[in-house]
Amino acid sequence: MMNCQEGLSKNSVVGLGLGQFLSLLITSTGLLSSELAKKGINAPTSQSFLNYILLALVYGGIMLYRRKALKAKWYYYVLLGLVDVEANFLVVKAYQYTSITSVMLLDCWSIPCVLLFTWFFLKTKYRFKKLVGVVICIAGLVIVIFSDVHSADRASGSNPIKGDLLVIAGATLYAVSNVGEEFFVKSADRVELMSFLGIFGAIVSAVQISILERSELKSIHWSAGAALPFVGFSVAMFLFYSGVPILLKISGSTMLNLSLLTSDMWAVLIRIFAYHEKVDWMYFVAFAVVTAGLIVYSVGDKMEENPAEVGDEEVEQSKHFDEEAGMSNPDHNFASSSAVEKDELASNDDLKKERRKKILTKK
């Protein structure tokens, strides 16, 4: 029977801790969004726009300083930026039509989507124990939902069917975005990914704001009370986006989505200690169940993973981008082929020398 030290590798422990830090950041963005909603500010795309600007400035600056060639085609990042912006928009928009409980439940749709996409596109193999961990995590969230059913704060929403469809669509796009980021993090470059996600995310957001939120922004009376939550939301999202690629590199997109399930429970703890509200005891049970599910999913990574296979897979993915970059740079190809020819000539000369030595020795 393996002990905890054998079951949990260093990367697994780091992944668990980073996952909960990201979950807390998501909780803070939810609280800040609710503060903006109380002040009558309803501009979800505009809130995300500042985050994309920060990503473009910080990581774009780092990329320009390094002066490295791109490892992936720029139009891949255009598609990823479009998917990411619309995922954020659809889920936030759903709160206008359906209940918080429905959003919480249907947002879990991203987990089976991530499992399917990573299995099909990234060829990720899941052991039975990991699937058990996923089921335990979802069971913990279901406990929260059952607790909310009898809550006085629960409302059906103005158009539940429309809201539910928006959540499902947004959760699917979140899954596509997470899996796409995992692929680029493992095969291209984290700084490149974040800089282009920021650039194209900002462009898509700016176009969408000009069409959908222009009148909303004009009606906002900007004061310290309105500006601080707005800026705080952007900073929290920037930190979240900066940490996501690291967790994707360590544990993958499934672990990311499972970790974010605890965000609603962190919100409950904040309500207890910051606002002195009373909550149902089932929240604490749910928190413990989800935590247990995360540990079950993470435990044994050290024994199950084959580093050689993982390394070979990442090398193949990197080779794919290198070949594309080489096709767009014929001078580099010519220099590389010249170097290969020189190596071949040198090896031939060495073989000839060895043969001469053998002949002389026989004589």
UniProtKB/TrEMBL annotation:
Compositional bias segments (type: Basic and acidic residues): 340-351
GO CC annotations on file: membrane
Keyword set, alphabetical order: Membrane, Transmembrane, Transmembrane helix, Transport
Annotated transmembrane regions: 49-65, 74-95, 101-122, 131-149, 161-179, 191-212, 224-248, 255-275, 281-299
Record's compositionally biased regions (Polar residues): 330-339
Family annotation (InterPro entries): EmrE-like, SLC35_F1/F2/F6, SLC35F_Transporter
Main location: membrane
Compartmental location: Membrane
Region (Disordered): 307-351
One function term, GO molecular function aspect: transmembrane transporter activity
Key word Lipoprotein present: no
Membrane topology type: Multi-pass membrane protein
Database matches in Pfam families: SLC35F
Family under the similarity heading: Belongs to the SLC35F solute transporter family.
Name of the protein described by the UniProt record: Solute carrier family 35 member F1-like
